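Hey L., structure's done. Input below.
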Amino acid sequence: MSMRGATADGDHRGMSGAIDFWFSIGSTYSYLSVMRIDVVARQSGVAVRWRPFDVRAIMVEMNNIPFSTKPVKARYMWRDLERRAAMYAIPWAGIPPYPIKTLALPNRIALVGASEGWCAEYVKATYRRWFLDGQDASTEPNVSQSLKDIGQEPARILALANSAETNAALDRETDAARALGIFGAPTFASGKEIFWGDDRLEDAVEWQRHAQAASAD
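Output:
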């Protein structure tokens, strides 16, 4: 398996363009985007490239302290997520374990999935188990069961995800996100234009749609 070109996920022929969905499994607001981005993009005729990266590494560089250490902000975040989930009819089962123990492993698995064409399915599966079943997305049983849910063999995938090649590939993707000016997840990129936060998903898709239409003209 090569990590080159690992960001192309799925068959986008006939679509009007692609938007890059930069996410880190471990990001809370990414749950909303993970569960709805395909529908939003499809309705506009825009394809999606799923781009896992290590947002925690960037946040550490920025001295951005996690929500878990800010109780007032954390309370707002969970209530906001619950409200937005209800607005989009996305399942909600209460506050999941947070923060997850490590971002690196599930995002390396997602990167393997991007190279093999099952990234989106895995990310959705692991978020369901995290948010709905209360299983940390970076530990067992979530890791293996989410892979089994989508028909993948955990032993094979974990060997690939823990390889030096995949570790280096995640570092490269994180560097690419950093170079774009990305500082949080989820972020959507249309070329060099970036849109941060689930509440900017529709804006990003519309921007991409208009950019593609202008290019076609």
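Strands lie at 18-23, 47-52, 187-190, 193-196. The first strand starts at residue 18 and ends at 23.

-- N.
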